[in-house]
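Please predict the structure of the following assembly.
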Amino acid sequence: MWTQEEILVLLEKVKDPEIPVLSLLDLGVITQVQVTPENKVVVNMTPTFSGCPAMDYMRKSVEETLAAAGVQEFKVQMSFDKPWNTNKITPNGRKVLQAFGLAPPPVYQVIPDLDILEHTTCPYCHSTNTTLRTPFGPTLCRAMHYCNNCRQMFEQFKPL
Amino acid sequence: MNEQAIKELLYTLADNQLVLGHRNSEWTGIGPILEEDIAFSSMAQDKLGHSLAFYALLYELGESDPDTLAFMRNPSQFHCCQLVELPIGEYDFSLIRHFLYDHAEAIRFEYLTQAGYEPLAKVATKLRGELKYHLLHANTMVKQLGNATAESINRLQQSLNDAFPYALGMFESSPYEAELASAGIFPLESQIQTQWLENIRKVLAQTQLQLPDLESVMPVFGGRRGVHSEYLQPLLDEMAEVYNLDPNTEW
């Protein structure tokens, strides 16, 4: 019989395919893990950006991880019931993003005001003397900024 | 509640996002500067994601699966407004269309989050955060280029004049809208148009651009009931070109 804790330990190994240091648990896209009395594991996931092509890949990674660990019966389902936002990234997730060179999204109250995009802290030199260059980047979840202090472009996991 | 009314609304929302998403994607690789290339490509990806979410709701209501809906219908079965099907033109036209369209879309999504139809409200709650970035982008670029050089101002003004009759066509009424409004699902198009005019005027007031006189413009309607411009069929052919090579293949 599987326990919820054991499944969570397994899932800690599943990383975001585009940010390989960030686990899906820290990203906050796994919204629920249940083990039924019949020993069936049910994992609920929610997409980050609706058009993100990595979502299907993430779902498959979860399925493969469960199968490889010997979980016989499982179901991984996507839903919008508990919509994802960047406040769901854990403190540990923010730490690894920063170390990876991606400025973590600021935590906001209620709804994000896009003014918070200005003066994002540079992940390299930690200066806030930075300028938003474009709210779009190499993937849907990233914005691009320029650091006026260390004079280089950097990417931010943008607040949603 | 009339299921047909909900379906018609979902088709309109989904088809607009799909077709404009496809048009935006045509800027990939040829944007005037790298940032704009990336911006239009990213918005294309978002909009395709939005259309998928709406087609998935239609599927739950018994319609065909999302791929079939996107790739296998004829133009007369599409409910999108003609604004979204027009060719990308030059960058100034695409920017103005994006500005006019996304201001309307932002208002729609705010209402949809309150929709008295829960599955739709959930999807809209999820998607509206993404849309904010589209709006931020449109406003930033229109304000910059609408105050820059004589050429940029003239180009944007000309595109605004050209796009405006089509933009008014975004607010084409449907036979179901009174019913949806009284059921608390979605307001009347005329109400959205009023708010839209107010919002775009606020931005245009910060530029040297003039909104064409509403009285002198004839809105281009028809799209919502399947009457389209000559540009939709070639777009659909191109979009479905790979799919039609082998519709049963596994991706």
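The two ends of chain A are 38 Å apart (CA to CA). Helices of chain A lie at 4-11, 24-27, 54-68, 91-100.
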